[in-house]
Amino acid sequence: MYRFRRLRQDGRIRSIMQETRLHPKDFIYPIFVTEGENIRNPVESMPGVYQYSIDRLDEILVRVKEADIGGVMLFGIPTQKDPQGSQAYAEDGITQRAVRYMKENYPEIYIVVDICLCEYTSHGHCGMVCGEEILNDETLPFLVKMAVSLAEAGADMAAPSDMMDGRVAAIREGLDLAGFTQMPIMAYSAKFASAYYGPFRDAAHSAPEFGDRKSYQMDFANGQEALREIAADIEEGADIVMVKPALAYLDVLKEAALTFDVPLAVYNVSGEYAMVKAAAANGWIDEKRIVTENLTAMKRAGAKVIITYHALDAVGWLG
Ligand code: PBG
Ligand code: ZN
To answer: Could you tell me where the beta strands, DSSP code E, fall in 161-212?
Structure first.
């Protein structure tokens, strides 16, 4: 009999043997920025998460800076929406202004911007629409415009989440032509059509007006196809590829880690956060221990980058 318990018998040896250790720099914290003034709106289904107007962003950015995490991911919530999502690539769009504000006041914070149109379109879909159809190729130039405009505002990394085919190549070419050859792309590559995005759509006001996202986001039954999506995005020039959501998809993440030699990200999404917060609020689980266990599992499965609403709390728990 081999005695595994020798290396488990007290905290000192367990700490030496620990294979996976979380670090503040592992985390990217999503922030919702809304138009208007003096706003700090709680997101009902995501306790601890708020929509901030730019004049109150300091309240959260001070904490981000203090926690010294990897960075933030910005989601803009415009007041004005139209079928083309024009506020997504407007020079004075809400996200562009938030990026400029951060560049000026928090130059040390790394800014990832989500590239997608659903928060900005009146129909709430991630691309251009004709009747009930979500158009692919017609959408690409708009995504490129959005990425370039946010790069011009000073964003550090572009993260396309729309799931149109060919968008990574299009955005790479657009960024390069505009002189942003150094801006990395983190592609939401294996992004599944998931019920776990429910709370986010309340937070970002991005629920589709008709139909669903199944004609562009992936079927959650498909693991092989996820690997093909990832391979395609790497081929198109993605610097980091993502699996989303996290917990129900750790098999996909692990498979990707074994298959590809590129940095992987995982998005611990809004519904995953909401479930943990709800159970914790009821006293049914220990939030600190559950969150630490979940985030460690994501890293153990192969994630280099973890996008999570728990980021700031988790840093406090790392000890
Ligand atoms: C926009 C986008 C979504 C999320 C990230 N970017 C929502 C969606 O695709 O409907 C989900 C994030 C979360 O649930 O936390 N396309
Ligand atoms: Zn979208």
So the answer is: 186-191
Question: Is position 1 within any domain?
Answer: no
Q: Band the pLDDT of 319: cuts 50, 70, 90.
A: confident
62 Cβ contact list (under 8 Å, min separation 6): none
Write down the mean pLDDT value for the chain.
97
Instruction: State which ligand 1 atom lies nearest to the alpha carbon of 119.
Output: 1
114 lines ligand 1 (CB under 6 A): yes
Assess whether the C-beta atom of 194 lies below 6 angstroms from ligand 1: no
Range of 181's domain? 17-318
CA dihedral 290, 292, 293, 299 (to 10 degrees): 150
Give a yes or no: residue 158 inside a domain.
yes
For residue range 214-232, list pLDDT tens digits in order. Answer: 999 999 999 999 999 999 9
Q: Is 171 exposed, middle or buried (0-12, 13-18, 19+ CB in 10 A)?
A: buried
- Counting ligands in written order, the one closest to the CA of 120 is 2
Write the CATH number for 43.
Answer: 3.20.20.70
Domain count, the chain: 1
In a domain? residue 106: yes
Q: How far is the CA of 273 from the centre of ligand 1 (A)?
A: 13
On the CB side of 186, CA atoms within 13 Å amount to 24
Q: What percent of the chain has pLDDT over 90?
A: 99
Q: Of the ligands numbered here, which is closest to the C-alpha atom of 186?
A: 1
Q: 165-199: per-residue pLDDT in tens? A: 999 999 999 999 999 999 999 999 999 999 999 99
Cα of 185 from ligand 2 centre, angstroms: 16
Residue 187's pLDDT is what?
Answer: 98
2 domain-assigned: no
Kindly indicate the confidence band of residue 1, based on its pLDDT and cuts at 50, 70 and 90. Answer: very high
* SS3 call for 235: helix
Three-state DSSP state, 99: helix
CA–CA dist 100, 306 (Å, integer): 24
Residues designated as active site:
191, 244
Please name the residues in contact with 131: beta carbons below 8 A apart, sequence gap of 6 or more.
none
